[in-house]
Design a protein that fits this description.
Length: 263
């Protein structure tokens, strides 16, 4: 599925951005280093449209289910960024968050934290729980609010109307933005996006899941920044399967986005 072979290092020097905000840097210099992907897939997709191969910047998201990660090896094989599960609801912390957070940072992987939304707790309570457990680390990616239906949850299968969902999302985003200084992104799935009309939210960057086709058609042309295209990825350095994602633009666009959107 993915390009195989030796990793290619592409160094892109960050251009200065407006205002007084300093651009994000790798630990060893003022450049963003993009490693080409050396991934495979346990269940590869025969992409009917635009393949994720056309995007040069790949990364992962992970949680407690990925217990063994050799971060330097994963980085060398194309993991340029990682979104790490931090919290869920108002009383759960992912037991692997701190380990993944430290490991990704030490390996030079751009890292961000995400919160899994629990539909049976107020959004404000969940925002405060996330803030309590996720450090305000310079250079981190913006926070992410993961919103999807939970039909198999043992404690909460509530399905509220779209207007309520969007208002709860707005409350969470506002509180978290005030703390970290960056507007969180929203991760979501096709059915949740359609059922709740999340496109009605203004000023939101989306991270979209679409494992059978390009998100442009699946999400009716909605703009996206990250695309999760498989949950069965195989990456050297990571034991077992893992979610793989791409960034929407070029190496240069990635460098520019980091300069604007890192904490």
């Amino acid at each position: 599925m993915m390009r195989a072979g030796l990793a290619l290092i592409v160094a892109v020097v960050l251009a200065g951005c407006g205002g007084t905000r300093a651009p994000m840097s790798d630990p060893k210099g003022d450049e963003v280093v993009v490693m080409s992907s050396n991934f495979t897939d346990a269940r590869p997709t025969d992409w009917p449209g635009r393949s994720p191969d056309r995007y040069p910047v790949h990364g992962i998201d992970l949680s407690r289910f990925q217990t063994q990660v050799d971060w330097p090896t994963a980085r060398a094989n194309g993991v340029n960024f990682a979104f790490i599960k931090a919290t869920e609801g108002g009383d759960m912390v992912d037991p692997m968050f701190e380990s993944h957070w430290r490991g990704a940072g030490a390996a030079g992987v751009k890292r961000g934290a995400y919160h899994f939304f629990y539909h049976c707790r107020p959004a404000a309570e969940q925002a405060r729980w996330f803030i309590r457990h996720v450090p305000r680390t310079p250079g981190a990616l913006p926070p992410v609010l993961d919103m999807e239906w939970t039909p198999f949850s043992p404690t909460c299968t509530l399905r509220r109307d779209g207007a309520t969902i969007r208002e709860e999302a707005r409350i969470f985003l506002d509180i978290v933005e005030r703390h970290y200084g960056q507007r969180p992104m929203i991760y979501t799935t096709v059915d949740f996006f359609r059922d709740t009309e999340l496109w009605r939210l203004k000023g939101v960057e989306f991270w979209l899941r679409s494992v059978a086709d390009h998100p442009h058609g699946v999400y009716d042309g909605t703009a996206w920044t990250f695309w999760q295209y498989t949950s069965t990825g195989l990456i050297p350095g990571i034991a077992g399967k893992v979610d793989i994602n791409v960034f929407a633009g070029s190496h240069q666009a990635w460098a520019g986005w980091l300069a604007q959107r890192s904490l």
